[in-house]
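Predict structure. Chain length: 687.
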Amino acid sequence: MALTLKASNGFVSRIRALFKLQRFSHAIVDGGLQPQFYRDMGSDSNSIPEQCQIDMSKWKKLDSRTFGITRSMISSPSWVVLKVLQREGFEAYLVGGCVRDLILNKTPKDFDVITTAKLKQIKKRFHRAQIVGRRFPICRVHVKGSVIEVSSFETVAKHGEEKEKVSFSQMPSGCDESDFNRWRNCMHRDFTINSLFFDPFVNKIYDYANGMKDLRSLKLRTLIPAQLSFKEDCARMLRGLRIAARLDLSFSRETETAIRSLASSVKSLDKSRIMLELNYMLSYGSAKPSLCLLWRFNLLDILLPFHGAYLAQQATEPSAQHSMMFMKLFFNLDKLVTCDRPCDCNLWVGLLAFHMALVNKPQDASVVWTLSSVLYHGKWTEGVKFARKHALAPISFSPEILVECDSKSNEELAERVSELASLVQDCVISSTKTGDLSASMSDYPDYPCTGLVFVQKRMAERVAHIFNVLVNDIESYEEGRESPEIDYYLLGKGDLRETRFVLGKVIMDTMSSGLVQMGTEVLEEKNQLHMSYNEQKPEALEQDCHPILYEVVKHLVVAKEDKKRSLSSFNPELQQERGKKQKFVDIEFDPLEQEIAKEKQKEKNNKHQEIPKKQEMAENEQHQEMAKKHLKMVEMENLQKSAKRQHKVAKNGHLPQQKLARKHNEQHKLEAVTQKPSRPSLSSLFK
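Prediction complete.
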């Protein structure tokens, strides 16, 4: 028996070693590297690659200015963190999705920093910073109202050594320590397009895994075999779908196969992690394509089984092909939120519950128009007036919207709207209970319910509170608002009034997109109304459209133009960038073309360089001053702490270490320091 167990353990160890070798080998080959292993796998149960010859010829160092990346595109808090770390003698880079988005001329959701400093060294140099995470800890640095996540090369190096034993002793000749650090770190990232490093101090982008090649071809590919990658962290599947939805990427065959085969593993994720990933999908302007991909890979049946069953049933009915209200709700949400102006999760949770309520109990168009209009206008009287004006035209949504049979009095409308609002609240609460969720699937016996719930009770109560104003004494409801513009700060914070306003607008836009004129859909797959939103003016529409449709489109065109004006006033530079075509230029990255591109860029910039250069100098000085301020404050605090510690020890004797640390934390407060303008030399800035 002992011999059998020993043999079994040896076999398991070899299998594990084989997977380690496969993971490491795939990472190197996919990165354009050529590994050569000289050790026999059978000679040791813990066999791992000891020698590998790395082909560095395919490593790329690119000029970020070739892609139009300027320093002003990097957030100010990120610059402060980068400057502080660099001034202290550490290397610091932007890494991951923010580099990818900057190359594609898109606004990054956030900026992640990686540095050669250790986590404790990072924390020591900032006033508000905490280390979080167990498996892959990071330091969250609070700067100017933003949170910058800073990771350390040391963290990934330690984790990697446990798996592959890749050390500096294997560093090939001609490869410096910085390159080796970056290469080793990138091999532990999820996708090739997220493995890029950007050093803004020298305008260099580093690519060690053919990330630029996949970015040019808009391909999503894992760095290690997809099956191993998703087994290692199944949340990567959700992250991959979100990235693909936002950037319109295609999947490698291996990645697509792995997602399909491992989709059910997402049920093992923590509820908070599922909510986090879904919020990234639905709150940042790519909700509809994200839902389409979730449905395509059978993940919607797991995460949102009710809506997955609804879509599956709708797909089998030709008459419903053009009227999927569910998708149009999130299509209209995507038009209002962006990556840098997201909504809170209570908005999309409310939309899911609203749609579920309509499917469970379809409503007359006038009831839905009134509910959405009252939420939008913030007043019962104005909401009813608007709804009566626009509820006459038929709506093509089935089964959610019923054919209007007769007109309703204000009292009857109030009763029906309150009933619908109460149904929505019930659907919100049911999303927190496995039993209620399973009961809601009774109309879809052919579609299984996983019973997975991820909406927390506290969140459900907040979402239900959105509709309270429509349940209790609705006819006296008069909240009102001073401006028709969306306050994106309040929306992102989950403010209930702002959420009601945007929720009402999304539903009204959706109802408008389903209008039918004389038996024919006005939009023809949404195209006509979409064109009306973006190109036509109300004056031109007045001549060609049905009077009722004209009023709706006019209202929406004005709202669309208001949004454009608000975007422009919010950030002129960002609006100018968005006005350009977001097109990725295919560039062959050999040295000659690099130099040609540099010269052309210089010639182009020389004509318009004076004002931007002054602005950049001013920004650079500001960031340098902020960095100096942080360092001065840290130095002052250290001196104060040292003096107080010596005084207390002399007075009271030795203090317990834990008590002393607690006192230090209590004394750690922000102090104002006078800023002295100074601009360091280029030699001190650029290494």
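Summary: The first strand starts at residue 60 and ends at 63.
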